[in-house]
Amino acid sequence: MKIVLTGFMGTGKTSVGRELCRKLGYQFIDTDTLIEEREGTPVSLIFKKKGEDYFRKLEQAVIEEVSHLKNVVIATGGGVIKNRKNVDNLGRRGIIIWLKAEPAIILKRVMTEGGKRPLLEVEEPLKEINKLLTERLPLYGQADASVDTNYITPEEAAQEIVEMLCLDARSVKVDLKERSYYIVIGSKVLRKLGLRLKEFRPSRVAVVSNKTVFPLYGDTVLKALDEYGIKPEVILIPDGEEYKDFTWAYNIHGELLKAGFDRNGLLVALGGGVVGDITGFVASTYMRGIRYVQVPTTLLAQVDSSVGGKTGVNHPLGKNMIGTFYQPSFVLIDVDTLRTLPKGEFSSGMAEAIKYGVIADTKLFDYLENNREDILSLGDGIIHIIKRSCEIKADIVSKDEREAGLRAILNFGHTVGHAVETVTEYKKYLHGEAVSIGMCAAADIAVRMKIFRKKEADRIRNLLESYKLPCAMPDALSLDKIITAVEIDKKTKAGSLTFILPESIGKARIEEGVDRGMIKKVVAAISVI
User: Fold this and answer.
1) How many CA atoms lie within 13 A of 162 on its CB side?
2) Quick one: which of 205, 254, 307, 437 has the fewest CB in 10 Å?
3) pLDDT in tens, 450-461
């Protein structure tokens, strides 16, 4: 992130900026200091010898140069805000914070600091400060947010900025070079969404949600956006996996067209996996691609579907068979949304967290076994497992964004799981419940193929069941239909059935050409009355 500090002289831009960099590990740039270094002359002498116009040209060139930097705090000269081009450059993928102070305090600080201030070399400096502040007030109002520095220390001002921007929360970077983005995870961060959206300078914003989630969190989101002058469109779809289809995607496209959204518009997906998937799909196809932000409100979406850029809609013959790879610009995870989540939905999300332990992290699996009560009570453990799950997925996605190889291991449990969802028309099982059944099936196949120990397969089954997840399905389901759905699944290549199979807890592999007869036996074995 780029943080830009603007404001009148003596408001603390340099001291607050240095403190911010100390807290965040960012690079600090003072534009006045940079100009002095390049000119070999103090700002006061540049003004005196070459005039303000000359200085402003130097200033604009420096601003244009440093505005492209990331993970930086830029302290600007007091007059930078007078130039609209400067504001546009500094605001591009950055947040502008106006530091404010009363005239008398400004004068006292300037006099205490020493050094010459060209604009205050007058008979009545306090009167001049009042005059200049009055002139610049509308200009400073262009900033995204403000902090009053009158009676607080630079450290306190810096901390206030950190909290405003959620930079005190846990974060994970999905490293995709120019398309990299951050996942922010914390408590009570939903109310801070508005300022974070300003970074993207959207022309319009639309919040896409469903009729269950929006009544719970819509007011918080709308208030957070309104605080920063964002008046979004609200588009609601029905709640349920069966509504993640072309009809509702087409409906959202239509609402955006009616509202006049252009390519600089931005969508906010507020909800679970269905809302996130369909919003991402619409974002990737509307005008051939606009930006979107994920605000997942279910555990399953927080640990899995909101991260990685897989978007899609369902077809009656298969789940997620139509979709795109299209990364979000930002992911904001507020764990407090889990407090309104039904127990079944929470358990569904735990299936994906368990998946990450099986395929990539023995310690995470152990943690899930040993901290069940803390996790279920939404203690600190829940933030830990969400962050760790996101870290694992971010690492895999950064190495294989479009599932050319490694990323396929994220599909552990999904081959049979998606088949179960398809055959039951997405109505009987939540996604995580179906994946849980699929993980048990995959573990059983691995045991039968002698690449995985039964003792460890039992650990997977026991952990899933401890979080109230199913490991079997009703025998009323047609075995032939399950196998047909497995063969249609997108993990199938040239007619060869591909499964993700565990080798040990914490390690999985891609296995092609799995025997159909064995799959039938395993599926039959996990079918119960």
Assistant:
1) 21
2) 254
3) 999 999 999 999
